[in-house]
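Lecture 7, part 2: worked example. A protein chain together with tyrosine.
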Amino acid sequence: MDAYEQITRNVSEVVTEDEVRALAESPDGKRAYVGYEPSGVLHIGHMLTATKLMELQDAGMDVTVLLADVHAYLNDKGSFEEIRDTAERMKAQFLAYGLDEEQTEFVLGSEFQFDREYVLDLHALELNTTLSRAERAMAEIKGGDSVKVSQAVYPLMQALDIVYLDVDLAIGGMEQRKVHMLARDVLPAIDEDAPTCMHTPLIADLSSGAGKMSSSTGTTISMEDSTKDIEEKVNAAFCPPTANPDPADDGTERENPVLQIFEYHVFPRFEQVVVERPEKYGGNLTYDDYASLEAELESGELHPMDAKTALASYLDELIAPGREKIRAQK
Ligand code: TYR
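Predicted complex, written out as structure tokens:
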């Protein structure tokens, strides 16, 4: 794999390809970041971008994790003190998940977002952005029904973070894309470059394959899950023998979440995936890459039930160190 392929592996969107190609020419010392609103427990969405950060570290890039305490506050996630506490616990879980302590810089938003210069730049961005544009950018991020003024300030601060953290590449899930597009449009107004961005896919809801997996609705996987929880959730997952399931009866698009988790969570972290099967059912199956596992699920060589059992055990292995941390934090 060349550096560009490694950097863009498994991403849904690259903005722009030319910019990322330029980065890939000399990734050493370039910096990428993801920001997270602190929450008590990492879930599978956090883990997906964290995996991307690990891949970028492998490609030689430096990584910043922004623990966006002020953003969480603006998005109505609790008192500032509670959020700060949560940020510390989250950091420990990211390290347990596998981010390299030496190569990862953890920054709290409140460390720089109250600086006079930052605040003045923020006001300049406010002058250059309509409320409706800010509102649209937040459509997939905000909590609550109606948009508060704080949630209109939020995407502008996210744009400004890219400047103040001095990053070359902003990473986020697809739900962050409108904020990044706003950042690309508005940062030039304060004489800053439009940032280069990459967006990771959203995993479908585990039980239905429709919509996206989220901790607020449906089933999600988190670091708090016991081995048994994971087994139960994965066993109950939607897993037809195809990567392209038919839409649901009401026309909603569906994905195969079991395959998605293999692709985006398991294969990036393990050289090889072994599906254990008793001899009488043909013995173990070994896969060196995602495509061959997908092909055998489609051909019927790999039964969905065996795929699920294997998935549960790999996921369990991935989250076990973080689960230990959470127990110690209690
Ligand atoms: N918007 C991100 C989320 O939905 C959090 C975030 C905050 C990301 C600030 C980056 C940033 O600079 O969780």
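The first helix runs from residue 3 to 8. The radius of gyration is 20 Å. Keep this in mind for problem set question 3.
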